[in-house]
Amino acid sequence: MKGVTILLKSFFIIFLFFSTKAFSDTIDRIEIIGNDRISDETIKLFISVNIKDEINEVKLNNIVKDLYETDFFKDISVNFDNQILSIKVLENPIIENISYEGVKSNRILEFIKQGTTIKQRSSYNEIEIKKEKQKIENILKNLGYYKSSLNILVEQSKNNLVNIVYDINLGKKSKIEKISFIGNKIFKDKKLRRVITSSEYKFWKFISGRKYLNQNSVLLDERLLTNFYKNNGYYNAKINSSYAKLIDDSNFELIFNIDAGSKIYFGELNLKLPIDFDKNNFISINKLFKKIKDKPYSINTIDKILDEIDNITTLEQYKFIKANVVESINNNKIDLVFIVEEGEKFYVDRINILGNTITSENVIRNQLLLDEGDPFSEILVNNSINNIKSLNFFKSVNPQVITNKENNTRSIDITVEEKSTGEIYASAGVGTSGSSIGFGVKENNFLGNGIALESNFSLSTESFKGIFSITNPNYNNSDKSLFFSAEATENDNYKTFGYKTKKTGISFGTNFEYLNDLYLGINNSNFYEVIETNSTASAQQQAQEGNYWDSFMKFNVNYDKRNQKFQTSSGFKSFYSLDLPVLSDTNTIKNFYNYSHYFNFFEKNFSSISIYLQSANSLNNKDIKLSERINIPSSRLRGFEAGRVGPKDGDDFIGGNYAYSLNFKSNVPQLFEESQNLDFLIFADAADIWGVDYNSSIEGDGIRSSVGVGLDWMSPIGPMNFTLSQPITKKDGDRTESFRFNLGTSF
């Protein structure tokens, strides 16, 4: 019996050996069956075996798996017999056309197309179509259409082709009828509603998209609420949940469940520096520590301290710096240690500029604050990117840093997307004394070399002005800008100012960075002018009739600490200029100073307060020329006509020797969230002008002020600006201008 068992085991082993050998035999031929559209060669490219390769069960399974992953086939079967590998396939149909029914809005269709992946001429796959349906439903919900429905129709066509029809019923947009906060006992609901992006439906918000329920906006609102609490001392604040409660057919109540936790205050704050760092350079940090101690905890405050550390280390040229914050909580106090360390040292290997087809690479490289071979600094990289953005030549500027730890180097890829830099613009104004129009052409990146060319003219019932200018911001790679301008003006101011003037001349000069963010400028201006006075003008005015030649030097100092030049949200800009006569018939010295401070009240808000100061005085105790007297432009005193305020000699506005203005403006982007092309503005202006050197008895002093609203619209024909102003305080004789608009287009 035992011998029989051994014999049977032997036969089994022999059988297993031969069967395995047979199955593992080599492939002599590969045949493809059932394919029509997909060629044999293409199919063979996707499988992991070739003729003369050994085949086994694992490889057969891999063939099926690989072919299914191509998404070309609906069914696949594989067989190996007599050294022939047979692959039988059933091809998926091809999508010939994709259409959308029930949606007329191009904007909504664009959102759908951008958010889906299946395209024409791709393979039809039922599973992928179902996934696509889910994507579209989510897109519609994010657009506020919670009651929408979607049916997918698949229409069979000849030659194994199908047409896909997305039948969409949008329904009514789901409005937010009410926003509620559960667990909030600290802040008024009204205040919290101002923090978030979502907004309750009100009839006057017919333009805003904030009144509609949007999943993405709700997620953003959760982060905004959390940050708001944390910035007001509630370190452990969190949003437990947020949900929409259906009120009726299409209206929801949006509910946020808030857990604020207890209020936390700043305790002990310390700065830990490397041994070789000079502590005197960080005195400002210690002052900040004393200022915020025992104040409520704030993330923004910590970020400001870290930014200040970055600024100091950059200014003092400390390299490879990283700053970390160690927190420890004891009862209601949080102690912080700011640890400044020298990080791992890297050097810049390569800086690659990508995406520029018009703009010269040198123009972009001139904005970089570091070069190949320099020590790598993340701060300098970020500042360089801001410099490139400030050129306003590009839609986007995206840096990518690639680290090579083997040789301690980093390469920087800077990818730009260019935009139109040419501009055709026009303006028009309507006031109590007449109307005005203007037209101009501007190219900020001529031939891709960063050279700015501009030509414009303006015409009103009383004046004409034409000007041509050219500016090279980086002449001969010297980091110095050169400019030249020529202009001609004619002002028929008989009715308003009592005189008429014709003026032609040229100006040229240079500007350059003297220190970090500190710019100096010097230029020379030469003008020939003819003044004619009205017969009804005063004797002092008539005495100034004649021809004048003026040549003067202008010196200016510009200290620019804005975070960015466009859509500025923080920092300041200080500008001073001095005009000194060289060869002049009047010898007038002029001073001008402007300070602007930028800030934001909330995300995407850009606000500023500006002050302007001006003076004009004679160096030889003579009357300054009528045309050099100061007038307040309408841009600094909206609601009033330019030059139609201040001292008057009889019926003539004559300007003053001194003037100032104070201006506030802010955008309110939430009003037009649904449209990226609209921006609502509010502003307030105040100004005064005084001083008449030839007749000190003439009065005109007094504060003028106004408030108003504006609208910036990126229309299909170009940017348009509308302002509506209301004077608050004025003096007798002042002339007002309640409405003004400007329009332009780009090329």
Write structural notes for this entry.
This protein is 19% helix and 45% strand. With 747 residues, the protein is of the alpha+beta class. The strands form seven sheets. The protein has a 16-stranded antiparallel barrel with strand order 16-17-18-19-20-21-22-23-24-25-26-29-30-31-32-33. It has a three-stranded mixed sheet with strand order 1-3-2, with helices on one face. A three-stranded mixed sheet has the order 4-6-5, with helices on one face. A hairpin with a 2-residue loop joins strand 2 and strand 3. Helix 8 runs antiparallel to helix 9. The longest helix is centred in the N-terminal third of the chain and has 22 residues.
What distinguishing features does this structure have?
747 residues; alpha+beta; Ubiquitin-like (UB roll); 6 domains; 16-stranded antiparallel beta barrel; three-stranded mixed β-sheet; 33 strands
N- and C-termini, Cα separation: 100 Å
Tally of distinct domains? 6
CATH homology superfamily of the largest domain: membrane protein fhac: a member of the omp85/tpsb transporter family
User: How confident is the prediction overall: mean pLDDT?
Assistant: 82
Alpha-beta classification: alpha+beta
Shape: elongated
Kindly provide the name of the CATH class of the largest domain: Mainly Beta
Largest sheet: 16 strands, antiparallel, barrel
CATH architecture descriptor text of the largest domain: Beta Barrel
